[in-house]
Amino acid sequence: MLFNSLDFTVFLPIVFMLYWFVFNKNLKQQNGLIVVASYFFYAWWDWRFLSLIFLSTFVDYIVGINIQKNENPHIRKQFLWLSIVVNLGMLGVFKYFNFFIENFALAFSFFGLDLSSYTLNLILPVGISFYTFQTLSYTLDIYKRKLEPTKDFIVFAAFVSFFPQLVAGPIERAKHLLPQFVAKRKFIYHKATDGLRQILWGLFKKMVIADNCALFADEFFKNQSEYSGSSLLIGAFFFTIQIYADFSGYSDIAIGTSRLFGFDLMKNFAFPYFSRNIREFWRRWHISLTSWFKDYFYIPIGGSKGSKWMQLRNTFLIFLVIGFWHGAHWKFIVYGFINALHFVPGILKGKSDRYEHFVAHNKWLPSIKELFNMLKTFAFLVLVRVFFRADTLTDALSYLSTIFSKSIFDIPVFPNRSSAVIVFVLISVFMTIEWFGRNNEYAIEKILFKLNRPWRFVCYYTILFCMFYFYAKQQQFIYFQF
Amino acid sequence: MKKFFHIFLIFCLPVLVVSGTLELVLRNIPNGYKLKSDYLKTNQKSIKTLLVGSSHILYGINPSLLSEKALNYGNVSQTIDIDYQIINQYINNLEVLETVVIRLSYTTLFEQLVNGDERWRIKDYEIYTDINLDQSFKYHFEILSVKLKNNLKRINDFYIINQNTEFVTIEGWGTNSIRQSSQDIDAVGKLTAEKHTINDDAIYVENYRILEAIVDLCQENEVKVILVTMPAYKSYVQHLNQNQLEMTISAGTFMANKYSNCSYFNFLAHKRFKRSDFLDADHLNSQGAENFSKLIDRLINQ
Fold first, then answer.
1. What pLDDT sits at residue B102?
2. Given a cut of 70, is residue B181 above it in pLDDT?
3. Which of A170, A185, A200 is the last residue of a domain?
4. How many other CB atoms are there within 10 angstroms of residue A98's CB atom?
5. A477 lies in which domain range?
6. Per-range mean pLDDT, top range of A56-60, A350-354, B130-134
7. Among A185, A204, A238, which residue terminates a domain?
8. Residues A214 and A144 in one domain
9. Which of A71, A83, A402, A453 could form a cystine bridge with A139, CB 3.0-4.6 A?
10. In the beta sheet, which residues pair with residue B168?
11. Check: CATH 3.40.50.80 for B30-119+165-301?
12. Nearest to B76 by CA among B47, B101, B111
């Protein structure tokens, strides 16, 4: 079920009413409702893959209890490995199997062996990369004795399948989310209205900004051979805005929906396109994933400690893994590699380029230096995003080679010039609101509080009107494919 | 909780009122679907010829030029599965029906409205006719099926500048074709042909069976079926994919050979139709429709 669909508009109020009016007296029933609603939400897309969610839930529930119960390090490790094998095994089969077979087939073809017939015709189950990582964090934390396992299967099932964040995150940590399922929930007016506001803003990002940018980005990437370098550069710009509005829009709707049910999810985006360097960008982009890899992969392999060589190795490893997490394609590996390259000078010089505060701290506008750094970072992202969006690595290289050709000086051509102008205006308005709301959880969180209620309502109606007036075409969220 | 619901309802009320008003206002705009549906119901005892198909039929055959009473039930982007539903639903009520004319265009066997970009048009059948194509909630409302921008334009056109964009005669002929296209028909022909050429023929078998079911149903009810491939301008014809075209033509020929109540006529590159007969590369204008209607009338009366 898509958040930006009519189905969800019907689904959400029904679950909300049942949750607060029918099952509000009994925590177990509320959690049970969340599990049923979440499984229904997922089954709307494809009920067959519910079995994978259930398998992951069941295995990690058992594993969690057994790791806790056993003091023998060998047995504890065996249970941990069971969890890792089941979760990563599912990912491996559904997401990476064909990639490895195809590449092995290519390698073995030099020796005359044909392995290509071993590829599987599998659909990638929506959200598999998200919920497997979420359940893995649970078993890993219990193994490290940072968390007590839950004995309540329904609580654990609700934690794994919680519908607002089931298919595209934020990837929650058990330490943060699980206790919220155990505690009694109380309806808090401000939390609920804040949730609705965040949902509205998320829908605006998705329906007005992302889906309109997608029309142009799709056209430029699909027919790249027909356009000049300048047009393709604008196509990459549109995609850069699209992916942010799409994914952060999804996260806003997920977090807002959770608030309606009395839950707090972790922040997933912190205005990443106002970052002054790539390091800052990665601290603000898809925070739940990057922090997951930092805690469960980067730090265990040494992190930023040790020799420069070790730091370089660890940096490249984490970015390659993050790239590969996005999909079984060489283009994602190259995407990760290029991002890692950006860190090399800093590591070699032994200089940390961390920023204490967000850009233009306590100021309205950035300094010239800050602006230059932001634009430089954004330009880098526009170019590196080509690897993310192109269908193949070859397409990405060809796209970039056209951008870096003489045709970059041509006047850009648009499939529909007047629509393109409108989209540019919308992007400008959007980025301006984001700029002035950059110190909030989400852009419009507090901006409108200076106004009295009628004027606030006028602003909400304007956002609603824009959502329907500039509605382009219903598109799936980009991160559903991961 | 009480406060939350109270304020939420206050917020929603204007949205609901505006939405409801928009829906009513939009439904009040005359449209061809309602007109055809009403005409079919009120004239079911006297209609002898039923014309079904897409815009090719809608603009291409004027029922008032046929000798027997006829209804043009062609609509923009109407596909063969909908043609079947219309015939299946009404054939028993059309007591004196003698002939069904169906277009067999280049795209007929390769598309269905419910799967394409034009599926928003499903709402026209759901709201204004008895044809049921999709139970989805959204297709029962104008405001949920069409973009707000387009709906506001429709309201402006009809209520503010008094211009009705639906030009349909009482017998269902689309008179949009009176207008002349200012487009370069040679360039448009190539583009349209490319747009109409499919990438995969997955739906061909299903549509072929639907076509056969129509012919079969008509045979059971002793109704004659005339399959026609409508005339198109040379710039369109020249750029058609030969394989897709051959699959279409051979389907028509096969039906005509197999069923005694069925005949097939291919007018695609008919020399009688010149530049002045076309609205664009694949649609006849009023002059072309007049010529073609006379031609069809002769075939019906054969």
1. 96
2. no
3. A185
4. 18
5. 191-276+355-481
6. A56-60
7. A185
8. no
9. A83
10. B174
11. no
12. B111
Query: Which chain B residue lies closest to A461 (C-alpha atoms)?
Result: B15
Q: Which residue has the tokens 């982007």?
A: B77
Decide if B149 and A10 are in contact by the 8 Å CB cutoff. Answer: no
The predicted-structure confidence for A341-375, as pLDDT tens digits, reads as follows 988 888 888 776 778 788 888 888 999 999 999 99
Q: Evaluate if residue B180 carries a pLDDT over 60.
A: no
Residues A18 and A151 in one domain: yes
CB-CB neighbors (< 8 A) of A44 in chain B:
none
pLDDT band at B64 (very low <50, low <70, confident <90, very high): very high
DSSP B44: T
SS3 assignment, position B263: strand
Kindly state whether residue A412 falls inside one of the protein's structural domains. Answer: yes
The total domain count for chain A is: 2
Strands B262-266 and B99-103, sheet pairing: unpaired
Tell me which chain B residue has its CA closest to the CA of residue A190. Answer: B4
Residues forming beta bridges with residue B284, ordered by sequence position:
B278
**Judgement on whether residues A128 and A16 belong to the same structural domain of the protein:** yes
Q: How far apart are CA A216 and CA A423, in angstroms?
A: 9
Q: How confident is the model at residue A2 (pLDDT cuts 50, 70, 90)?
A: confident
Residue B179: pLDDT over 60: no
> Mean of the pLDDT values across residues A5-16?
92
Same domain assignment for residues A232 and A137: no
Decide: residue A97, CB within 10 A, 0-12 exposed, 13-18 middle, 19+ buried: middle
- Give the whole-angstrom CA distance, residue B189 versus residue B253: 26
Say yes or no: A92 and A159 in one domain.
Answer: yes
Is A150 in contact with A178 (CB distance < 8 Å)? yes
**A197 in the same domain as A169:** no
Encode pLDDT of A82-130 as tens digits.
999 999 999 888 887 777 777 777 777 777 776 666 666 777 788 888 9
**What is d(CA B47, CA B45) in angstroms, rounded to the nearest whole number?**
6
Catalytic option among A326, A329, A342, A361: A326
pLDDT band at B183 (very low <50, low <70, confident <90, very high): low
Q: Do the beta carbons of residue A262 and residue A177 sit within 8 Å? A: no
- Contacting residues of A for B13, CB less than 8 Å apart: none
Q: What is the mean pLDDT of residues B217-234?
A: 95
Is residue A320 included in any domain, yes or no? no
Asked if the structure places residue A328 within a domain, the reply is no
Rg of chain B taking only CA atoms, in angstroms:
21
Residue of A185, A194, A468 best to disrupt the B interface, most CBs of B under 10 A = A468
pLDDT at A346: 83
Q: How far is CA A478 from CA A14, A28, A67, A127, A209, in A?
A: 27, 34, 36, 11, 13
Cβ contact A332:A387 at 8 Å: yes
For all residues of chain B together, what is the average pLDDT? 91
pLDDT of A116? 62
Strand B224-229 and strand B70-74: pairing? unpaired
* Domain membership flag for residue A95: yes
Model pTM score = 0.85
Specify the amino acid at residue A472.
Answer: A
* B1/A193 CB distance under 8 A: no
Q: Which two tokens stand for residue B302?
A: 């054969």
Give the start-to-end residue ranges of the domains of chain B: 30-119+165-301
pLDDT of B295: 93
